[in-house]
Amino acid sequence: MMFVLHPGVSEKKINEFTQKFEKMGFTPMISSGTERTVVGLVGNTKILDVDDIVENNDIVSYGKRITEPYKLASRAFHPDDTMVMVGEKIVGNKIAGNQTVGNNKGGNKIVGNQIFGEGIFQVISGPCSVESEDQIIKVARAVKLSGATLLRGGAYKPRSSPYSFQGLEMDGLKLLSIAKQETGLPIVSELTNISQLDDFEDVDVIQIGARNMQNYDLLKEIGKIKKPILLKRGLCNTIEEFLMSAEYIMAGGNENVILCERGMRTIETMTRNTLDISAVPLLKKISHLPIIIDPSHAAGIRSLVAPLSKAAIAAGADGLMIETHNDPANALCDGAQSLDLAQFDNLMFEVKRRVEFEGKILGT
Description:
There is one protein chain. It contains ten helices and 17 strands. The protein is an alpha/beta fold. It folds into two domains: 2-64, 2-Layer Sandwich (Alpha-Beta Plaits), CATH 3.30.70.1140; 114-362, TIM Barrel. Strand 13, helix 6 (239-251) and strand 14 (257-261) form a beta-alpha-beta unit. Helix 3 packs across helix 4 (170-183), helix 3 (133-146) runs parallel beside helix 10 (341-357) and helix 5 (216-222) crosses helix 6 (239-251). The radius of gyration is 21 Å and the shape is elongated.
């Protein structure tokens, strides 16, 4: 259930309004848009009469029930696009800082490293796995020079085979931190178990991989932190299930969720997975969360990464996540789908052109 308040309602009156429902056992969620404030109620709202609440509260313009099971991730509750800040928060009343948002109607000051959301396009790049200091530093410097805005690297690797390389674990995270200090790129790495969380203090964006998309205990725990979460769609999950996983994180209090479409397992055997490009405009329609595409895992074939990346930009994605390695032929993980440094540089030339054509800003 959600209520749209009249413009200009004071914070005091909003607090008085929400406290009534807190005493009744509901969890009020406040979304402040560019023009109006929306109050959503989480709980068994069947006992509430929408019309009665509207009539008896002069600060309420109108109310309605949200029929989708994903309440907080729904655009019905949060009409404006969510801007996920990697670093600081959006504050103030003027556009300033090192990033500006194309559709920044609120005229906010932007402070921090990178922003995910409408008007900004981010490119996350790096190796599937961190293998050595020399490797990650070399890749980090190269992808930044080509235009990547964040560095990815796997330290903890959930693999189908127990005999495959499982990652350098904590040592891998330390090497990512060194690469971050060398290049200034924010880092993205996958968390596979909540026991690892303390090790991720220097990681800027925590990735929840496809295999953990429905690990609800893990989702609940990361909902308690405020760090941005990159949530990958499961191998065989529907869009509704995808959003319900995001809902678990948001219901815990962490609204900094970035969705990632990475392809699904279908009857097709010529590619590793099948990229659901239609997920981008559909998610844009029904959810306010930013959505990026991982073309590397979607195809599993190096030659398909560039065309799928271009399709993602045209479909309206907010970014890309591309596996890049300095020596793909000898990579310890997913070398067949990784671009080499020259291939990534060539792709970024095309990405920059197409992002500009779509009227977006490439993060810097």
